[in-house]
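Worked example 2:
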Amino acid sequence: MTSMMHTRIHELFDERVASAPEQVFLYLPEGTLSLADLDACVTLLAQELLADGVLPGDRVLTVAENCPEHVALILACSRVGAWSCGVNARMSRGEVSAFNAKADPRVVYFTSGVSFAARQHGVDAGAMPSVLPGLQRSAPRPQAVAEQGELAARVAAVIFTSGTTGAPKGVLVSHAGLLQFARVSAQSRELGPQDRSYAYLPMTHIFGLGTVLMASLYAGAGLVMRSSFDPADVFEALANQGVSTLQGPPTMFNRLLGWLDQQGVAQPSAPALRYVYTGAAALDMRLKLAVEQRLGLPLHHGYGLSEYAGALAVGCLGVRRDDTSAGYVVEGGEVRIVNPEGQDLPCGGKGEIWMRGVGLMPGYFRDEAATAQVMRPGGWYASGDQGYQAADGALFVVGRLKEMIIRSGFNVYPGEVEVVLAAFPGVQRAAVVGRPESDGNEEILAFLETSDQTPLDMEALHAHIAENLAPYKRPARVVCVGAFPMTHSGKILKRQLLADLAPAPG
């Protein structure tokens, strides 16, 4: 564990290098990298950034898939005081262009060595070689405006939100928040130098940046790093590469279970695996039980978001719950459950989740209006998520406030309906949305991602719905789809489902 107080994220890395320079940190398909190896890359990139005129408070946009060069660039930005802005390389040309315009970066990097998509974006930008062979970079932009003052020193990164409910925003993530998240995440798993985590989660997202990278640096653990997700590779790493912790969104675990079914494997080999965690999206009980049965470990769950530098609540290590609670509020964080008037609700009352603490963002990048929309008196952030706390303090997340459906004067929480649907044989995942009707009511639509191995009995499904849901909660339509549209961080794009897969009757 770390022994010093740090103010910037690279200082955590520098301490690791000083204490164990030859320790292997990254396990890659082509070999390994020690902390000293990575430090050499960080030093070269920091020199290049300075030579390109990158100033404290500048943004450095990185169109990336996971690789050592991206890790080195994140740390090099911290060394020179710049803000790392990661964009998933698999986004479209238009999306990357929009993020580029929003970030106003001094320079743009592309992880061209590991990513064909990043290489193509680099071609579009007329990129030139970087000091590291696995990177390309744009010419520096003299017109970029560096942020000044206290904020410039406070911010480590800009994380662009996934945009599931509207236009993406740039979340300012502080050094203090990431360092706190690193400690909380490592301690929640009792992570240590003997551990290796499977690291496919994009480090352009808070899940990969915080839970995977920063927590491993804090604990001195290693990363089995991959640029993309491949179920066969996950199980090979579990069987032969000493992977002891496995984290990812529910989507990842659905794909892993599907691969096991296709291969006819009942129990995968994972001799070192001791901790399994999911977050970034809702967890249904069917998936939880299936993962626990196949891997033989409790599936821990948590609640986090970019605006709070990752985890606000996590489950207790080794404790299996018989529900889908997101666990308990972490040290340094505070939570309130409030009604629409901002008044605290009693234990068990469902309302909006408000939060504050060390990890809370300073705001959205150059967007005072969006920041004002979510901040409340006393420094509270209104998350837009609905939830409640049980008598023991466990936090339950019901769904998004904007997704709540009003039907016959009653509130319908999509998550409650989705849990019932997902429990039916043959349903892999469910997504429930509301669509306004002419009388002011909302029609409930249910989208189901189904299993190839279990044909769906629609008559039995409707009987199951009738038995488990009140009439006003029952979907008016059930639409089966092959695969849900997803964000790169594993969230279902419900707006796209509504637009693409259920056109309004005309």
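Residues 404-501 form a domain with the GMP Synthetase; Chain A, domain 3 fold (CATH 3.30.300.30). The mean pLDDT is 91.
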